[in-house]
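We emphasize that the prediction below concerns an isolated chain of 132 residues; any contacts that depend on oligomerization or on bound cofactors are therefore not represented. The input was used exactly as deposited, without trimming of termini.
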Amino acid sequence: MTALGVAMVLDRDDSIGVGALVRPYAVTRGRTRPRLDIAMEALVETTARGRSGGFLAGQEQQTIAGMCGVGLQSMAEIAARMQMPLGVARVLVADMAADGLLAVHEPAGISDGDDVVGTELLERVLSGLRRL
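Result of the prediction step, given as a token string:
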């Protein structure tokens, strides 16, 4: 992703393509809202249908299915590794989940009356950020 919000298309060997630039809205076919509401910390994995590969439309979908086929990936990790905005990655992952290619595991909900869970989650996030 460049400073102007232009996504670079990756070649098969994951090197940056020569002069191949694609606007994020082109990757999502102009859509800005995902079909499903996916939290950025939600974990994503490829389903058996997604591993078969026959249903994957574009290179981005193939890359996401490959990443999530190795192990669980968070929504934020997918966006970062794809070098695309989180919103674009959400649209792609939501489409793939709706088609049965990916399984999305949402984090446990935080109840209104239980502040301990919210504090614990924030402490884990802070600890992870410090390790970076």
